Amino acid sequence: MTLDMLPADRPARIVAVDWPSLVQEEAGRLRALGLEEGAKVSVSHRGVFGGRDPIAVAVGRMTVALRRAHAAAMQVEEL
């Protein structure tokens, strides 16, 4: 399943990221924030309007707001 489909408050691990589908600068920022293969994540909140953007994702002790398109590029497995 992809990160954008992960139910809220369920821990998961990123197993793969489709880096070529992301803009290079955005991919670099996501990596700098720790959103890469092996990272443990969980969805905290989803936006309420339109496409439900942004998605608030807990990574370690921080929360990062992601666009749905970025979360859709990340394959996760529930822990």
UniProtKB/TrEMBL annotation:
Highest taxon of the lineage: Bacteria
Keyword presence, Iron: yes
Keywords from the named record: Iron
UniProt-listed Pfam families: FeoA
UniProt keyword DNA-binding, yes or no: no
Domain Ferrous iron transporter FeoA-like: 1-78
Stored InterPro entries: Fe-transptr_FeoA-like, FeoA, FeoA_core_dom, Transcriptional_repressor_C
PANTHER family: FE(2+) TRANSPORT PROTEIN A (PTHR42954:SF2)
The protein's name in its UniProt record: FeoA family protein
